[in-house]
Amino acid sequence: MAWDFETDPEFQTELDWMRGFIDTEIIPIESLLEEKSRAEIAPVLEVLRDKVKARGLWGAFLDPALGGQGFGQLKLALMSEQIGRSMFSMLVFGVQAPDSGNMELMAHGATEEQKERWLWPNLRGEITSAFALTEPFNAGADPTKISTTAVRDGDEWVIDGHKWFITNASSADITLVFAETNPENRPHKHASIIVVPAGTPGMDVVRDVGTMSHPRPEFGRPGGHAEVIFRECRVPLDHMIGEPGDGFVLAQKRLGGGRIHHAMRWLGQAQRAFDIMCERAVSRESHGRLLAQHQMIQDYIALSHMEIESARLVCFQTAWKMDRYGAAKVRHELGMVKALVSKTVLAVLDRTIQVCGALGYSTDLPVESWYRGTRFGSIGDGPDELHKSVLARTLLKDHRPVQGWPTEHIPSRRAAAEAKWAELCAQAPS
Ligand SMILES: Cc1cc2nc3c(=O)[nH]c(=O)nc-3n(C[C@H](O)[C@H](O)[C@H](O)COP(=O)(O)OP(=O)(O)OC[C@H]3O[C@@H](n4cnc5c(N)ncnc54)[C@H](O)[C@@H]3O)c2cc1C
Predict the structure, then answer these.
(1) Class of domain 254-396
(2) Which of 174, 307, 312, 324 has the fewest beta carbons closer than 10 A?
(3) What's the pLDDT score for residue 18?
(4) Residue whose CA is at the smallest distance from ligand 1 atom 2
(5) Structure pTM?
């Protein structure tokens, strides 16, 4: 009977190393990063990255067949939980969105020549990438409807369209653009993915949009979410990843394990917030008792722990199933993970702010910024409503309509109950 909740001791050593490294090398400098320029951060990032590379933990998300180390989703989930303790760690470990998803996409769809040009440099951290799907005037939740087009003209694709919220488009070296190439093949074979290098004439990065996380963004800073207009933007034909019409299938590739990694990072953040909440609860008195001795605070703590632990188990089980049966078999569960954990982490962050009172609301603690930064979770990468809808529809496929009373209608089952009773009574010793 295989039912094991323990991590291999060898891999646990790696997780312990990650935890120690993040806690001693990254978390201490975290509060300074916002005020440092890209140029100031770059050499420090290199120092940290070299240590991760030396440990063999760099960019650890691709399957061996795709050029990665092949940790598998369960190990990646455990690693992502550690990385979530400080979101800066994503850059240090080479697993930052949107690069990781783009690399997964290219690993599946790019030619060897395209991999040499874009994938491997991206994986080595020499270039960065953005992914442009969402548009201001079409619902991003429904990518079957986009207005951006790419039309073939001789040996070039000519792209026209308007995108927005494109993470890193103002700083990335390449943007993977999701554009309609085959309108006759709507809804799911009409779009393709085309690589547009930064600085290509006709690609106008208009601005980085202000957000809850960064109300006054600095244009061109990594982590910005850009509005981009393409006007007769021309790139060679060999900039298309995959075949015309492959856009949907390839876009799905970038989301598979990524949803689990996102979720586990959020849970790493939730656990750090939980520790902040507990420390405050055992340190501060109100009405003659520690906060920890007030039952409502105990409720917050117990509830947060229960929610974190249950969400972790759902993530681990989904990761395990994905390793065993493949992404296609757990599609609805990947959405479940995302919709569940995006709420769990916000609930824990919110309770932490509450228990810390004015201090929690203040910028003297990191929790308010985590809250603003993580609120996107239930919107980005398809809103939670959509994932729940896919989940519900998948679950409903296992259910058939009945005529008349429900199957479990007690009066209708009375006769069968009595028959079964009589049968069991007949077997009982007299
Ligand atoms: C921080 C952040 C980073 C992002 N980075 C990128 C990026 O790099 N590249 C990119 O292309 N996009 C990016 N996005 C955009 C993101 O993918 C979209 O915001 C998302 O897909 C939702 O699309 P929308 O914003 O147009 O909302 P809409 O599609 O307009 O949906 C708005 C709301 O309507 C409701 N809704 C929509 N559809 C349904 C439905 N079927 N059932 C029930 N309710 C529904 C939901 O409540 C939803 O939140 C990013 C977004 C954020 C917040």
Answers:
(1) mainly alpha
(2) 324
(3) 98
(4) 380
(5) 0.94
